[in-house]
Amino acid sequence: MSAFNSDIAIARAAKKKPIKEIAARLGMSEEDIVPYGHDKAKVSAPFLKSLESRPDGKLILVTAVNPTPAGEGKTTTTVGLGDGLNRIGKNALICIREASLGPCFGGKGGAAGGGYAQIVPMEEMNLHFTGDFHAITTAHNLLSAMIDNHIYWGNDLQIDSRRVTWRRVLDMNDRALRQITASLGGVANGFPRETGFDITVASEVMAILCLSNDLKDLEKRLGDIIVAYRRDKTPITARDLKADGAMAVLLKDAIQPNLVQTLENNPAFVHGGPFANIAHGCNSVVATKAALKLADYVVTEAGFGADLGAEKFFDIKCRKAGLKPAAAVIVATVRAMKMNGGVAKADLGAENVEAVKAGCANLGRHVENVKGFGVPVVVAINHFSADTEAEIQAVKDYVATLGTEAIVCRHWAEGSAGIEGLAHKVVELADGGTADFKPIYPDEMGLFEKIETVVKKIYRGSEVTADQSVLDQLSAWEEAGYGHLPVCMAKTQYSFSTDPTKRGAPTDFSVHVREVRLSAGAGFVVAICGQIMTMPGLPSQPAAESIYLNDQGEIEGLF
Fold first, then answer.
1. Any bridge partners for residue 120, and if so which?
2. Of 3, 205, 313, 477, which shows the fewest CB atoms inside 10 Å?
């Protein structure tokens, strides 16, 4: 089969093994999994519990430069590296996030990898999969319904309807729902109030599922969700509304990791899916911890560029879960370096070594940032057929000046055979014992100071601004006992700054925090910066226009 076949055509031609055989490779019996058809399954809670006494393997993070329209291939590299490690004789397992329907039908596409480095079944993974996102959406909206129902039936908790902070969610890009008025239509429909929708992957329930250690922890965190305030500004929680038990019931299966396989029949956990620009952008703690008990090397990813995904992986997920990454891979492409160097997308096919060199500043900053967390780094140059030797060498030479190595990877076209060099280097770094991981700020630092630390150390901004109301809100949360929480920065993924047009490595810019949200159940404070939206919109030509069923009843156009 030609390497120029579409991802979906390659995935459809895959020779998948029954999921029970993939499970058996990890030491699971048929009783340890809950099959969803022949090619996917959930891992049972009793089996997960049985792993606790086992030693942990090495955790490898795959992150990337800031995304460009040219494409970087971070998930593709994550999958390829997992296959490559298994190819060189290592016991490796892949952990990635599930795909949201919003980007699948919008502009970004799916999240199963690409070319000959994919996880299958690709169609199911990018659509309804095992129903986890539906369960999260339903649990979230049950809580929404119970808030309005409580107000309708007398409001014993004295909820101030002007101070209901819990919105509704939908796993679709729908800008028309960002701000709405609910409960119109008269007395029978309740008390009208202003509210809105976020996309499911921005839900605190999604973050909670991905950061919980088990079902008991999940239910406790669900109960801690702050949904509204009284007139005296004291908080109302999901536990106060007696919603936490029913929400946990809806999520009891969703918290179990999903087991699938790569095109080369290597095991992969695909579980959870918070966005990286408006949430913390990592797969579930349950899946990652289970993988570390089952494999010697676990390859996981964090969403978008390292300024968002990797920072949150380190400062939120690793901090909360007690994880210590052994090595990191930063994915870059010659095409992305050209775009960061000022080349338009239409001109990427022509050789331009000087633009590559200019754009490498973006890569360099990500390398410095990840090293700043005490994690050793290697750069993966995800190869495209139009890349020239001179352009590739320019990236290698630049990375060498940082005391790091850049390795060309051809996994998209060649599968695991094209990424052996990176696999060997990752093993060398992970086994080298040089990792000394630590987050970039301590728990006891003030919330605004934590925001400033991320902006100045990671983004290289010169200042953080915020309205007095935002500063007062942060101070109030500190007084209420939430000052120890990490911060989750919500900003554009396309730039270190909050201006998506500022490519490369901008400095001396200001970051304005326009809103803050307390995710008391998930355990972080969200700082919303710039024009970032927690409910994305569809592009002018959404991918949905090109997705259809062919004459054989097969899906076409999904990517």
1. 261
2. 3
Residue 52 has pLDDT above 80, yes or no: yes
Residues tagged active-site? 74, 76, 97, 108, 276, 304, 384, 412
pLDDT tens column, 102-157: 888 987 777 788 899 999 998 888 899 999 999 999 999 999 999 999 999 999 99
Token pair for 446: 């003030």
Encoded tokens for 335: 């095409």
In the numeric block, which tokens belong to residue 154?
């007398």
Contact assessment for residue 457 and residue 370, using Cβ atoms and an 8 Å cutoff: no
Asked whether 340 and 504 are in contact (CB, 8 A), the reply is: yes
The alpha carbon dihedral of 103, 367, 456, 437 has a sign of positive
Read off the pLDDT of residues 228-238 as tens digits, 9 standing for 90 and up.
999 999 999 99
Within 13 A of 270's CA, how many CA atoms are on the CB side? 34
Residue 57 sits at φ, ψ, to 5 deg, of: -85, -170
Closest CA to 326 of 79, 39, 57: 57
421, HSE (Cβ side, Cα atoms, 13 Å): 14
- pLDDT-derived band at 32 (thresholds 50, 70, 90) equals very high
Token pair 């004295």 is found at 158
Confidence (pTM): 0.94
* Cα 50 to Cα 52: distance, rounded to the nearest angstrom: 6
Omega cis (within 30) before 121: yes
CA distance 384 to 409: 9
- As a whole number of Å, the end-to-end CA separation of the chain is 18
**Six token digits for residue 428:** 């060398």
